[in-house]
Design goal:
The chain is α/β, with parallel strands linked by helices. Helix content is about 40%, strand content about 15%.
Length: about 425
């Protein structure tokens, strides 16, 4: 599962913490502070606590040591937080005013936690122009940035070149119609030219399917929410087109509906193509180097326009921090082009800064080229405090479509009704 997939969940306890923050500490309509501080002169000083996510991160620890060498009076203390506990821990810390100085924040959580008045507005010394626009968009809530992009995450198409070649596909088409025809050609070889093959596509359904479907809406030239009017737009022709395209993949039996492990199926030759993030390629290179010559990547096929989903993790400084200046200086250091390239090379994650991709450690991996191209056209999902509820509704309806339990029209009507009922939050 990609990191963006792991970070895209919320729980009742987290929502309870959000309600607590609304009830205690400020009025419900006061909103987050939009006033950005300026970075002070000179080196950073004092202790800075950082919550990282997942397992202990040696590359992050190494960068922290380098920062301390350049700032001898600074002391960086990093605490790893499991992803499955992170959302509740973060919202509880914000509600109680006792969080770390800085933390990695799953990008789909930014709006919710910024609305809780949890984060400092980003200093003007940190320029949006240094980052991919879609990644910077993940940090913003009501036109104000409350963090800095750190780890980018987007999906591309992985394809088994050996399997595709037996179907006469040497390079999959780059447009919707052509790519669908390629999938059909590959599917026809299942059990024949490709005896092990079961499915041409590993398109996801169920939990986090929205991550892979929402870019289809944008590629069709539409969207699911209009921020100018504050209304949902699931009832548009473009959304219907994206639903129909998604549904046909399952209707034509080209993707599994039984929650098959797509990455393992791709590895074993049971699935010919996947739409996934960089973690899949990293795992394949690490665990199955013998397959290096049998798979390749390409940007997502294009509809009326090119588009992809901007996910990943941002760095945010907490309002409760006692050492905001040093915390922001550490954030600025970590998101410098050179240091993001170091982090990307050491972890296999995608740098969120454009300049980091000019580093030889990034350009030397040709299979990352598709990600670099995709990052130019990514967009963030709507910055709504209710987004996780909306996303869950999308997942549920997409699963009905994939299983043949609902039509495109049924799903479109249900999504418009459910989203409107859930609302946009604060």
């Amino acid at each position: 599962m990609s990191r963006s997939a792991r970070v895209a969940r919320t729980t009742a306890a987290g929502l309870a913490a959000l309600l607590l923050a609304t009830a205690c500490g400020r009025s419900a309509d006061s909103g987050p502070d939009k006033q950005a501080a300026s970075l002070g002169e000179g080196p950073a000083k004092g202790k800075v606590t950082l919550w990282s996510m997942g397992d202990p991160d040696p590359t992050l620890e190494s960068l922290a040591k380098e920062f301390e060498r350049g700032n001898p009076d600074a002391d960086i203390q990093i605490t790893p937080i499991p992803w499955d506990a992170a959302h509740d821990k973060l919202t509880t810390a914000i509600a109680g005013g006792n969080g770390p100085d800085v933390s990695l924040i799953g990008s789909t959580w930014m709006a919710e936690m910024a609305a809780m008045n949890g984060f400092e507005a980003t200093p003007k010394e940190i320029s949006p122009a240094a980052f991919f626009p879609g990644q910077w968009e993940t940090t913003t809530y009501k036109d104000t940035a409350y963090g800095v992009p750190f780890i980018a995450d987007t999906s591309v198409i992985y394809y088994r070149t050996d399997i595709a070649a037996k179907a006469g596909v040497t390079q999959p088409s780059t447009d919707w119609k052509g790519f669908a025809e390629d999938l059909k050609a590959i599917q026809r070889t299942a059990g024949k030219q490709n005896p092990k093959l079961r499915h041409a596509s590993g398109m996801q359904t169920g939990f986090n399917a929205w991550l892979f479907w929402l870019p289809m809406v944008w590629q069709a030239g539409g969207d699911i929410y209009d921020p100018k009017t504050g209304t949902f737009t699931f009832d548009t022709p473009e959304v219907a087109e994206a639903l129909a395209y998604y549904g046909r993949i399952f209707e034509d039996k080209m993707a599994p509906t039984d929650k098959t492990d797509g990455r393992q199926g791709f590895h074993d030759g049971l699935i010919a193509t996947l739409q996934q993030g960089a973690s899949v390629g990293g795992a394949l290179r690490k665990d199955s180097p013998e397959l290096d010559g049998t798979w390749q990547t390409m940007p997502l096929p294009v509809g009326r326009s090119a588009a992809g989903l901007a996910g990943g993790s941002d760095l945010a400084v907490f309002r409760s921090s006692d050492n905001k200046d040093a915390a922001w200086k550490f954030v600025r250091f970590l998101t410098d082009d050179k240091n993001l390239a170091t982090y990307g090379a050491g972890t296999g994650q995608l740098p969120a800064a454009v300049g980091a991709w000019n580093d030889a450690r990034m350009t030397g991996n040709t299979k990352l080229a598709a990600f670099r191209k995709q990052l130019d056209v990514t967009k963030a999902p709507p910055a709504l405090t209710t987004w996780q509820q909306i996303a869950s509704a999308i997942d549920s309806e997409l699963e009905k479509l994939a299983l043949g339990k609902a039509t495109t029209q049924d799903v479109q009507k249900a999504l418009q009704s459910k989203a409107t009922s859930i609302g946009t939050g604060r």
